[in-house]
Amino acid sequence: MSDRDRITGLLGTSGEDAGCEGTLALLAESVEGELAGRDIDELLPAVAAHLRNCPACAEDYQGLSVLAREQHRA
């Protein structure tokens, strides 16, 4: 196992990660997919991986998700 693999394992990030910028660019698409009943892990796996590991982006996602659900119900 390489040092990079050990660091990746410790940080909990495996595979592709969209990063903050990439995730924020796809946040609306992620929420729309969720509202349509799609699994974000299948729809946008790199975004899903990032959301699992970045509390700030996960908080933005949750906030947008709540707003979208409220508008969807109205």
Topology record:
Blueprint: H1 3-11, H2 19-25, H3 27-35, H4 40-43, H5 45-53, H6 55-73
Helix pairs in contact: 2-5, 3-6, 5-6
Tell me what the structure shows.
This protein has helices at 3-11, 19-25, 27-35, 40-43, 45-53, 55-73. It has six helices and no strands. By secondary structure, it is an all-alpha fold. It is elongated.
Rg over CA atoms:
14 Å
Q: What's the mean pLDDT score?
A: 85
Shape: elongated
Low-confidence segments: none
**Proportion of beta-strand residues:** under 5%
Number of strands: 0
In which range does the helix fraction lie?
Answer: over 70%
Major beta-sheet overview? none
Measure the end-to-end span: 52 Å
Structural class: mainly alpha
What string, H for helix and E for strand, traces the elements in order? HHHHHH
Number of helices: 6
Task: Produce a short descriptive summary.
With 74 residues, the chain is mainly alpha-helical.
Key features?
74 residues
